[in-house]
User: What shape does this take?
Amino acid sequence: MNSPLTADTTALHLFFTDDVYLVNEPGLQLDAVGATPEITPLQQESPKQTSSSANAPVQEPLAFKFLGKNQRNILILVNDVQNEVSDEAGRELLRKIVKSVNLTANDFALLNYAGYSGVNFKQLLEYFSCNLVFAFGVKPAQLALTEYPQNTIVNEGSVRLIFAHELRNLDQSPAEKKALWASLQNLGL
Assistant: This one.
C-alpha cells in the first residue's frame, strides 16, 4: 500500500482549495507568499542540535596524557615547558613531597599543565574527579579561579588545593619549602 502522504503540488491542489501556510515547519520551505507553494527540503539538523547551536563548533572530549593511576583522585599539576615533569632536582623534590604524604604513583595523576594551558579547573575536575590538587607553577588565574595564597591549603567547593612555585624554583627556596611542608603536615592523608 502506498503512503497517503504526498509533496506533489498538483495533488495538494485537489485537496486544498484555500491557501495553506506553514509556520516554523522543520524540513519544509515555501517559495513565495501567495504563489503556488514549492516544497523543498531543508538541511536536516541532528536531533541534539538546535538552530542556535548549528553553527557552533563541536567540542572534542578532552584527553590528557598523564602519569600515575589516579586511584585516590589526587591531581598533581606541574608546569614545565622544557621537561616532561621537571629537571632532576625538581623531580627529586616531587618524590620527597609525594613520599612525605604517603602517596604512590597509583594514588595520583601527574599532569604537565604546560601542554594544556587553556584548560580550566572545571575541566580538570570533570576529567580527573579530583578531591585534592597540588599545583606546582600553575597559578589559580590560569585555572580560572580566584587568587589564593601560595603554600596554603584552600578549598574550591569540595576540592582541596595547594598552590606552590614551580618545582625547580621551590627547590631553591628554603622558606617556600618550609611553608609547603607545614601545609602538607595538615593534609591528613
